[in-house]
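JOB MANIFEST
job_type = single_chain_structure
chain_count = 1
residues = 359
[input]
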Amino acid sequence: MKKLADLVLKILEKAVAGERIGLEDGVALLKSDQLVLMGLAANSVKKRIHPEPVVTFVIDRNINYTNVCQTKCRFCAFYRSADDPDAYVLKNEEIFAKIRETQECGGTQILMQGGLHPNLPLSFYVDMLKAIKERFDIHVHSFSPPEIAHFSRLSGLPVREVIQTLQAAGLDSIPGGGAEILDNRVRKYISPHKITWEEWMEVMTTAHELGMKTTATMMFGSVETLEERVMHLIRVRDAQDRTGGFRAFIPWSYQPSNTDLGGETATGIDYLKTLAVSRLLLDNVPNIQASWVTQGAKMAQVSLSFGANDFGGTMLEENVVRAAGVSYRVPIDEIISSIFDAGYKPAQRNTKYEIMKYY
């Protein structure tokens, strides 16, 4: 035990000194019980990147334009088949009403994601984007890599051309959904019909080459090993070395309720350790986001001492995690007070992480 503690201390000292840590280092940290030391080290790295005691958040809304999905991932409780009685595809007027309400609340971003609908052509998404941009001045942060790969397959167009087409129609940036764990053993088990980790990364790096920024996520705590969890981080870091296109990283814990996969959700300690290791390993990704959607406001508040510098979005609407039995709702006032109470200055940002307003 002392040997592991000494090793962990050396790894943390290396990371705090600005040296890059690797796979074995990350696994050793996740196996360690040195939670407080890991938090202190992650916070030290965060302060090097973000020296001002400011924690940001964005006012946004998650619009799920359809719940019809042919992928049927084992960890998902949101999807429906096209003939299910509660299957839906939102009409443009419904989307417009949601965007209007978002802007009335001071929102600057919409996160549009949906199931992989087998019958909606690429033109459906192009027309949707154009209609939104004709009516609203709002950042469209939408269509995760599995969706874009799906559009590519349905249209017969290469991924690059699909992204260019969506970009021309009004797509501003791409969210990191569908990453789960960037390992094909895990993916074959929890989402056998979804794209490989290489295909997920191809969408992201292609978007970066086209001048589009994205985010990256990780859903941990399902069936992955600690090695696979750390390799996920390293694969994001390697891609970031090549492109510099990831604005932020968001780790969140698997939620088992109402899913075919079942199992247990990660503990709060596991979440904090994974968050800290994310900050320590991802030395080239500027922002690490707390996940109040899966952890709640109190744990998100603690996250600010474990490497997170951003509270994420207000998410005036969120349906996917809620379908898995978790429905934390955190009003803007509570986000602001949570940040204040943790000893930081709250600031509203836009999608580009530009500060719009201090509180």
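[summary]
Residues 318-329 have pLDDT under 50 and may be disordered.
Strands lie at 54-58, 60-64, 109-113, 139-140, 214-220, 246-253, 287-288, 310-313, 345-349, 355-358.
exit_status = 0
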